[in-house]
Amino acid sequence: xxxxxxxxxxxxxxxxxxxxxxxxxxxxxxxxxxxxxxxxxxxxxxxxxxxxxxxxxxxxxxxxxxxxxxxxxxxxxxxxxxxxxxxxxxxxxxxxxxxxxxxxxxxxxxxxxxxxxxxxxxxxxxxxxxxxxxxxxxxxxxxxxxxxxxxxxxxxxxxxxxxxxxxxxxxxxxxxxxxxxxxxxxxxxxxxxxxxxxxxxxxxxxxxxxxxxxxxxxxxxxxxxxxxxxxxxxxxxxxxxxxxxxxxxxxxxxxxxxxxxxxxxxxxxxxxxxxxxxxxxxxxxxxxxxxxxxxxxxxxxxxxxxxxxxxxxxxxxxxxxxxxxxxxxxxxxxxxxxxxxxxxxxxxxxxxxxxxxxxxxxxxxxxxxxxxxxxxxxxxxxxxxxxxxx
Length: 390
Description:
This protein is mainly α. It is built from 16 helices and no strands. It has a domain at 247-341.
């Protein structure tokens, strides 16, 4: 049932000769699925309120596109990119509860389970060494790894539209999608607060935990681009969930632990390191007054200095009386506390520092002569003929 994606760069080449009946049926199912997704997305952009006012729209979309168990990654990617994302992007505020919220109630729990299982599988491939073998870039394991990465980024784009009203253009072509995936995913400033739909989603008892857990888990999955995108959504989502009372003590510890784990995994990349340090510090600053036990997560860092933790708590307590901002002293102190966790490149793991002590002093004349004739030792013309035969 749709085992190929002809639009994907990972698609295998078609065999020569006329297609077999089984392949013709697969192509028909795939084309039908693709056309339905494109039709739903186009209707969301063009019909507007006439579409969103239809009774049972969310249930019909979920039953038609997301009801089948264990959908392949490339099928889910098409649903997210071509159907679900346009539906949420063009949804009027008046129909948030009737359309957008039911869609996310169905899709968010499904996706967090599916992506968690897929990343566990990809992680097992890395641990077993199958992705490191020299079997070429066309092996099944490599293709599955790439598909899981692309699917994760697609789902984060859907969450971005749902939570913070993503600033991407309405028409999102395949070329732009591939450029965005290869380029690392945008350098726009991270939002501070969620949108009206985002607050509604995070306060929902079904969709809220699933969305928040997806973002926090995406921080720690083995894809630096997905981690960076999730980092931009994590703090607004955490603030909104905290304000709605949907965060418990265990959730607070897990959120800070996820940021620190991501810092260990992706800290070798400068962009990820800066974003994750800011996220971890902001999360600690927001959670510490409500959940004092969250300090135990930092205290569990190997070789951490208790005096530094006390100084950080004092700075955060003093900052509560002033407008919240990340000043340099807090960032430097937090980076010092977490320095043992920050991941480094393989080329820097076993670097031996070289220190040369007691170097001789170099005497540099203050006023250099303009030419050789004005030098104290002269031009040295007589030395040219010193060894000449007489």
